[in-house]
Prior knowledge:
The structure holds two protein chains of two kinds.
Chain A: H1 6-31, H2 46-55, E1 61-63, H3 69-75, H4 79-86, E2 110-112, H5 120-130, E3 138-143, H6 150-161, E4 166-172, E5 175-176, E6 179-180, H7 181-184, H8 194-197, E7 201-205, H9 209-224, E8 230-235, H10 253-261, H11 264-274, H12 280-302
Parallel strand pairs in A: 1-2, 1-3, 3-4, 4-8, 7-8
Antiparallel strand pairs in A: 5-6
Helix pairs in contact in A: 1-2, 1-3, 1-11, 1-12, 2-3, 2-9, 4-12
Chain B: H1 6-20, E1 24-28, H2 43-47, E2 52-54, H3 59-71, E3 75-80, H4 90-97, H5 100-103, E4 113-118, H6 133-137, E5 143-145, H7 150-162, E6 167-172, E7 196-199, E8 204-208, H8 212-225, E9 230-234, E10 237-239, H9 243-253, E11 256-263, H10 268-280, E12 289-293, H11 302-308, H12 312-322
Helix pairs in contact in B: 1-7, 3-4, 8-12, 9-10
Amino acid sequence: MDTNSDEGKIELLRRMTLIRAFEERVIELYHKGEFAGLVHVGIGQEAVGVAVAASLNADDYLYGTHRSHGHFLARGADPDKMMAELAGRATGYCKGLGGSMHLVAAEINAMGATGIVAGTLPLALGTALACQDEDKIVAVYFGDGASNTGGFHESLNIAALWKLPVVLVCENNGYAEFTPMSEHTVVEHVSAHCGPYEIPSHIVDGNDVFAVLEALEDAVQRARSGGGPTMVECLTYRLRGHYVGDPAEYRQAQEVKEWQEKDPLLKLSTTLQERGLLTVADVSQIMKEAENRIQQAVTFALDSPYLDATAMLDEVFS
Amino acid sequence: MSQERFIDSLRDGISEEMRADPRVIIFGEDVAVGGAFGVTGGLADEFGDKRVINTPISEDTIMGMAVGASIAGKRPIVEIMFMDFMTLAMSQLVNHAAKLHFMSGGQLDVPMVVRVQQGAQGGWGSQHSQSLEAWFAHVPGLKVVAPGNAADAKLMIRAAIQDDSPVIFIEHRGLYFKTDPDDLPVNDIKGFHEARVVRQGSDVTIVSYSRMVADALVAAEMLGAKGISAEVIDLRSLVPIDMPTLIDSVQKTSRLLIAHEAVMQGGLGAEIAAQVQREAFDYLDAPIERVGAPFVPVPASLALEKEFVPDPAKIVAAVKRMFGRD
């Protein structure tokens, strides 16, 4: 995707707006009792997902986290199949067997979200090993909480040792579930762990889509040219709780308010208006289009059937 | 019948499959120099360091990488040096390998093999001797197989590599350097999920797998001398279990004993007993018996290890109990 063009920049906003609209509706449907399960929304973190998607080729691979609706939608996942999956329907990407935390959309090489923190790092390394000679790269997401797991350190070591073509995308939203980073590690930035493993890294404003894009350009280029992994640590914030229904009382109102002012959608839309690429009316139109598209997805999802209970028995083995 | 040792037959099976299919790769600790027991010896010379890859001691990541490589089109064989170390790789195995096909609604296949060595022998103690197959048999999505002879080692590793689901391939270290007995029946099994009757009998069925099949055969000879005709079945596949072969046998013999080296409590024998009594209750003339290790960690002392591991005498004693003899 050409994010240097005016149209490309507007497309970034369209995608971020679509993700926001998707997740706002998911929250609403959850509270209405239409959706169940553990649902983690990334409202406030949309710039990272959109920048990553815009930086990858169609045949590159992507691995997410437990908070991956945005990662997948940014990559071009079909909102109908996404919404149907969250609604547990047979028409969802995973026939309702995966749900919000375990999304897979193989048609766009989005090979897995996971409920296991840091869990997709080893998967990404394995995929990178498999496609090392094919000019494909792998992007994998994780958060600040993941940096305290053994798998994170094992993976950094192996990725560096074998110069695997991976882009390590850290969404540092400052909280591991309910615990602020200052209480879960002595390390100020996750990318500080890169030093001993000799992995190049960037720390960027994760709410500034252009800053993330710039860092990713370096990371993608290194991965594609055989230079091995790069970590891009995106400083961001989830404007909602850890999961839908989490009142997030462990955070100060002032802190949330400050981050609301740094909302990545607001930031991008203001920038594009300042540069004369969009008017207020254009922005409203983009929001309206996104809401309409998501309404269509909701209708599709709620009108879809559930998988027959006996059919799931056939999905255990290949 | 194979004149090869188990370990050589197993290696032959791996290399034949690697020659036939360039997607097959191996990784694990020390595998490029043969691994701890020599199973992969020489493979790096033939197939190069892009297909036989030494890893750091990072079991969880090794396991996860196999999953990631398999869903991107490879057919990885991962070696976990000791069953005890599977504990370190459980999250990737149980949460990803076993479930990605299911959770993706069938979008992804995970065609990987986990080769793992187990068994109590040589006084290696509680952390290098455990038989933990029942854990994996409890997780939907994993196939679990345990060859009991050299001929099966080759046949079953090839089938495991060709399978599109994750397979746990259990190797007892007491088998590695054994050759098959001359009178082992010729292997006429097509699939690797079929059990095999390795000795015909009419009075009692002894079901076992892995190294304990040999003990069951010795026990059967001892019982024969006492006038009890024992049929011995090598289960081979623990998930899925070939119930028709077991039921056919029990319908003939009316008695069943399951023998395994693993701790008896919560072991695979309990599952087999439950299924057989449900399917063939009317045929049973005695309660189903089990032989397994006592409910203790594996002791380091060789003298105590010998007491811990079931043997032919314990199988014979259990069978005699079923006939009301002491």
